[in-house]
Amino acid sequence: MSDTTGKSTMSSPLTVRRRKAEWRFRAYGVAAIAFCFLAILVLFTSIITKGYSAFQQSHISIPIKLDAAVIDPDGKRDPDTLIAADYASLVKQSVLTALAVPEDDKPARKHAMELISDSSDTQVRDVVLANPAKIGQTVNISLTASDNVDAVLKGNIDRTVPEADRQVSDQQLSWIDGLKKAGKISEDFNTGLFTNGASSKPESAGLWVAIIGSFYMMLIVILIAVPFGVASAIYLEEFAPKNRWTDLIEVNVNNLAAVPSIVFGLLGLAIFINGFGLPRSASLVGGLVLALMTLPTIIIATRAALGSIPPSIKEAAMGVGASKMQTIFHHVLPLAIPGILTGTIIGLVRALGETAPLLMIGMVAFIVDPPKSILEPATALPIQIYMWATSAERGFAARTGAATIVLLLFSFLMNAGAIYLRRKFERRW
After folding, report:
1. What is the average pLDDT value for the chain, to the nearest integer?
2. Among 3.40.50.300, 3.30.300.130, 1.10.3720.10, 3.40.50.1980, what is the CATH number of 208-425?
3. pLDDT tens sequence across 199-250
4. Burial, 22: exposed, middle or buried (Cβ in 10 Å; 0-12, 13-18, 19+)?
5. How does DSSP assign 202-257, residue by residue?
6. Which of 35, 233, 281, 403 is the most buried (most CB within 10 A)?
7. What pLDDT score was predicted for residue 1?
8. Phi first, then psi: what are they for 288, rounded to 5°?
9. Where exactly are the structural domains of the chain?
């Protein structure tokens, strides 16, 4: 009798409908996860496809005669004299000689010099400064190829297009093929992507200034937002009296966490630049703005971590004679550290990728040399990505993807650190 009743219950229309609804809900969940995974896969594939080529840079090996009459006519090896020498003329003469370009063929001479980067004279200068004993010798130096040559070698320029519609002439293609056949062209890891500053030429542009600027700003955020955020959360959660004022503070903290980031940029522009007179584009101003933006996130995460500690911990500590302060700092806070670290790192990752507030304080700057202090002009990784993405030159498209990969890598490392710290210190109750 019971078996019959059970079977009838399992096969009743209501049970069947509930099972179908449950199956549909699971199917929707799986479909949503699959869609999100597919979207992320497409995004990462697009970024990597566009940016991986920027990690390789073409170089052309040219014998450069380091003429002492041009570099150091006095023979004193004075550093100021060596720096101010006319290296561009040495590069030009050596390139034209290597390609056997006639002196009276001005168009050919112009096309020949377009094969190498405008920063080639700097490369020769660096070789001389590193070893002045080479002055007077002929040295093979790998000069950075121009963006068009790099694009040809990477297959980004169609050779079948008519010459009039192509950015590389037939003569230049002939030179490129000859140099490649002679083993004078190589593709090496693009160290300049990480060591160079801003440049109007894609082949010479790098992320070093942006990396230094982001480092300074993250350091300021850590030194300001973390201690103030944790201290504020401890006071609000454990010490503040429950009244209308603390309720108002809590509501405003939660509201600030949802305020658009560009509003913090306007706040920084009004207070730190117009009010306090701090320099525009400085890492100090950017760090202060990002610290204000990150502060609510750290406060909310810290309060949640403190609130997750079982009340029995506090009761046991106070039961053996611990004061309120000892209970918080000796028992509750150490147990809440995993949650605090996780929330803090998540806030820092968000600050690392912010662009809008930094645009408002003028960090869109063309800066060649890295800042030596937090008061000097700088830029940041997301700002550099924005500037490269809006550039018209084809070569900046690949560097935009490469910079995005670098930014994502930093974000992944920080998130991985948060996961590791949480698992290392987490206590389950």
Report:
1. 88
2. 1.10.3720.10
3. 888 888 999 999 999 999 999 999 999 999 999 999 998 888 888 888 888 8
4. exposed
5. GGG--SHHHHHHHHHHHHHHHHHHHHHHHHHHHIIIIIS--SHHHHHHHHHHHHHH
6. 403
7. 45
8. -65, -40
9. 2-52, 55-195, 208-425
